[in-house]
C-alpha cells in the first residue's frame, strides 16, 4: 500500500471521520452502546444452553477450559484491536484479509463470516424455541416459535442503527444484570445458607464427585469446541467500527473489558453454579442456569432466568442480522458480491443484504420441523468452524500488519497487541488444536465435512467473478455512499 493510500484510509475512517461515516454508514453508535454490544456479544446460547452439555462431558474442569479459551480470546481481540486502530472499517475482517493476504482471502472471509451469522441465527432461534417449551411444553410446535422469532427480529432490523444500538444496549443489560444476580444468590447460599440446595451447597462440589477432572483430561479437551462456540460473536465489535462515533476511544475500551467479562460471566458464574449444585445434576439440552434454580427450589427464579436466556438468544440473532447485511455490502462494494447489496436506506441500513440473510435463516424453521431434537447440535458444530475462520484471519492479518509496520511500510497502531506476534501464534495453535478435537467428536465432525464443500463452492464462485472481471485486488478503498433506496 502506498503512503497516499494509507493517508486516504485514515482520512476516511480515522478519528476525523464525519458523522456521516465511512462507506455511507451513519456514525451513531455511542460509547455505552459499543461497550454493551461487546459485553453482550459473548453472552448468549453458548453459555446459557451449550454449557449444559459441556458440564455433562467435563464436569467442574469445564471452568479451566473456559479460562484457557478466554485467554486465547483476549489475544484474538487485542490483535483485532491493533488492526481496528490502524483502519476502523465496517468490512473489518474481510477488508483486512483482502489487504494483507489477497483478494481471494477477503472473498472467502467475507462470505464465510456472513455464513457464520446466518447459521448462528438459526442456532439462536432454535435455542429460543427450546426456551419457550419451558412454559408451553409440546402444546405449540418448536418450528412455529422459530418462524415467529425470525420474522420479528427481521422487522426489528429495519430500524436505524442508532435504535439497533439502543435495543442491544438494553438486551445486554438484562443479561449482565441476571448473571450478576445469579452469582450473588449462589454466594448467599454458600455463605448464609438458604433454599433447598443449602444442605449440599459447598465449594467441595468442585472436586467431590469424581474429582476436578471426572471424565479425564480428554473429556475436558473434547468440550473445547463447545467452549469456543460460546465465545463466538466477541469479534462483532469490529463490524461496528464503521458506525462508531469515536472508534479511537470506544473500541479499545470495549476490547479491554474482555478479561473481566470472561472472569465474571463465565468462570465466576460456573464456579458458583457448580458449587451450589453438583455437576452430576446437569443434562445436555437444559440450561444449567434454569436447572440450578429449580434445584434450589426457586421455581420463580428459574422462570425469570428462562426469560433472560430467551432474551439472550434473541439478542444474538438480532446482532447476526445486523452483521450479515454489513458484510454483504462490503463484499459488493469490492466487486465480490451482487451490486444490489450496496444500496442503503435513508437511515443507513443495508436492507437488501439483511433481507436476503433473514430469508436464509428461515432454513432454521425447516431444521426445527424435521429434527427438533438434534437441531442445536447440527448448527453449533458448523457455526464453530465458520466463526473460527474469522479469528484465524484476524490473527494472520495482525501478524502480517505488525511485520510491515515494524519495517516502516505502514503506520503503527496506537493500540498494539501485547506480546504479539507470539501471542497471535499461540492463539493460532490453540485454534488448530480445537479443530483437531472437533474431528474426534462424532457430533462436531459434520462441520469438517461441510467446510471443504463450502471452500470448493467459494473457489468456483471466485473464478466466475474473476472471469467476469468483478473482483478488485489489494486493499479496499473507502467507498462512496450509495444512494438511499427510493431516492
General description of the model:
- Residues 1-22 and 474-487 have low confidence and may be disordered.
- Helix 6 (93-100) packs antiparallel against helix 7 (103-136) and helix 9 (161-191) crosses helix 14.
- The longest helix has 35 residues, at 299-333.
- The chain has 21 helices and no strands.
- It has 487 residues and is mostly helical.
- Helices cover 68% and strands 0% of the residues.
- It has helices at 3-13, 31-41, 45-48, 50-58, 62-86, 93-100, 103-136, 142-156, 161-191, 216-221, 224-231, 236-239, 247-255, 258-276, 288-296, 299-333, 351-361, 363-370, 375-406, 422-440, 445-467.
- It is globular, with a radius of gyration of 22 Å.
- It has a single domain (13-467), classed as Amino acid/polyamine transporter I (Up-down Bundle).
- Residues 34-466 form the Amino acid permease/ SLC12A domain.
- Residues 1-22 are annotated as: Disordered.
- Belongs to the amino acid-polyamine-organocation (APC) superfamily. Amino acid transporter (AAT) (TC 2.A.3.1) family.
- This is Amino acid permease.
- It holds the Pfam family AA_permease.
